[in-house]
Amino acid sequence: MSPSEKMVCLPLIVLWLGLAGAMEFKSIAHIKSKTSDIEQTATVREMAARVTGERAKDFVLIVNSSMAISNKDTYQLETVDSKLQITGSSGIAVAMGFYFYLKYYCNSQFTWGGQNINLPDPLPAVKGTVTTTAQDRFRYYQNVCTVSYSFAFWDWERWERHIDWMALNGINLPLAFTGQEAIFQRLYMNMGISNEDLEGFFGGPAFLAWSRMGNIQGWGGPLPQMWITNQLLLQHRILQRMRGFGMVPVLPAFAGHVPASFTKVFPQAKVTRLGGWSRFNSTYSYTYLLDFNDPLFKVIGATFIQLMNSEFGVDHIYNADTFNEMTPASSSTSYLASAGEAVYKAMLAGDPDAVWLMQGWLFMDSNFWKPPQIKALLTSVPLGRMIILDLFAELSPVYQRTESFYGQPFIWCMLHNFGGTMELYGALDNLNNGPSVARKFNNSTMIGTGLTPEGIFQNEVIYEFMNENAWRDGPRDIDSWLASYIQQRYNYTSSAVIEAWYLLKQSVYNCTDGHGDGDRVLITERPQLNYDVSANVWYDPEMLFTAWDNLLEASADFNPNELFIYDLVDVTRNSLQILSLSYYSSLIKAYNARDTVGVREYGMKMVELLMDMDTLLASDKHFLLGRWLADAASWGTDMAEKFLMLYNARNQITLWGPSGEIVDYASKQWSGLFKDYYAPRWMFFSDWLAQLIENCSCWYCNVLNAPKYCSFSVGNSLSLARELHDKYRPESRKEFFQLLPKTSTSLTFSSRGKSKAFKQRYQKGLLSMLHSGRDQEFGMSGW
Fold it and tell me: What catalytic activity is recorded (predicted)?
């Protein structure tokens, strides 16, 4: 037995802290920054200069690692000689204190959508000293999908600002998956697997998240060598900056998935095919998993970590998800225990201090993952050497039904968003109470909080609120917090804007019925006859519309900044989106009544609404398809590479697969998509319904061209929002929305009174078109 394996058998000591209501795991005490205080100080000072410009000279920022209390980040604020001095236990602690001061002393904010930095001269003084200690050791960030849905085509400039945002919000345990394909390429080619064989293994640039987890293989590829090399170089800069702040990046590990050609080189290897994923065919799914007892498993796992650590350096914490949305071959507890043991021992063979961080998303499949199965996997790793991300804890916490993950440490995470969709949505009350409840849970093993959205650039208020749970010791008064948030965001407040946000809090941000994220959006989904309109609305829409009224009223009283404009466009967009439900209801009623004129009338109303939305969204840089496409194209060094990048970018946000396997899952409400994708699709749908009524033959719309899109905004957002408010606000008939729960059950295809021939045409035509997923049916083959 090797020294590494012997270490697995050693008992690991867990210290119980009764007063804190949580455990301190000595087995992960070594998961901490190795960057010197001097380097962290320099990094955080550079960040302050990027955020505040010349005013950075008014801040004295100092990292003193001895300040940490029980390994928890601590910062102290005080005014010294008219300057604001912030001393913290790490660069992250100092950055967190810096942002606290900006928000609560200077009414400033720094978010994905922009920044509102207002520094009085002189700086507001801090009375005495203000000392804050984080509630937990870790603040984790990223879903494994986030990099594909939001960061896929970022350059260093985008990453730099985002890492600043992470630091300001206290993130000290970020996922860092960029560039791993270069390491896997090096590993497999050293083992005799050709680069040509790897072309069917790696996913395309927009689909790497799912090929890394073994859900799919090769889709969106082949991955150009240019991409593999440049992502490796980018990862060096990302890791250098993360570590400079004192973050501990989570690097990838080998989870067991191998290329299809693996058995050609190793014919004696035990390899099985997993089941399909999300309707992908056997070319792109049914991936290959190396048997956990095959000696090559440990060899590959250890070699990968050694190669990666030689390239990037070591932080001792690794992510691997073997069964993410994939059903294991057996529910036998011995099989699942062998799976966990194999993955961990492979890590350990490459790094004797390895700690395995695993997403807990697989446990949402309660039909398979029952208590014995969960326990078998979790307890196959020594206590404290595996950290579980309770990925969806704000709505469906797993720790409560697994005795706090059977003793393994976990991080309470907010998932919030699926696919990077853009519906206004949140569950503020759950976020306000959930982390503190988890900390006090009987025998709690909670060691941190985390953000795990599939996509970002939406609902910024939710993330600002959640991030403060890092240092909040319990629930806060949400109304008071919102009042501060408004001032920080706009540097302005009034009764109208306060009323707007309180209405949003009581409606879109008060989800209490278990909605996952409100990602069902009628206008961005493939049109169908039996759409449940109530799935879009879990609140009184009149509150949303009145909030829209109030924001426009407030805009007349001050010079709105970029964050106010962003919110106004966002609320206008969401209000118009909800209004589309009324048009859809009338369209389907007209169809069921065989009213051709009504079908065409409401079809045109829907299309006009979508075109108006496109004009509005074009006025704000945050809502542009062109920006996503320009970022993608920028990675190509020739026409073939640019085409591949653009194909990946377009496919992910529309068909998501070769034949619409996950169609519209990652839909975006961006200018460009409305006028060239959503509007033509709805026009096609309403025209087809009208022709079915008229007994005309079925037809296909023209294939769309691939027009160019602006990557910069066009138009005045404020004027356009007012114009659309004047046009559409009278249409928000409260009576319709009060009847939503009733109407949703009646909006189905009615065949009563229709001829047999009519029903046959319907079945052959419309159902085939709506459900087959063939891209040419909605003109997407050329788009």
Answer: Hydrolysis of terminal non-reducing N-acetyl-D-glucosamine residues in N-acetyl-alpha-D-glucosaminides
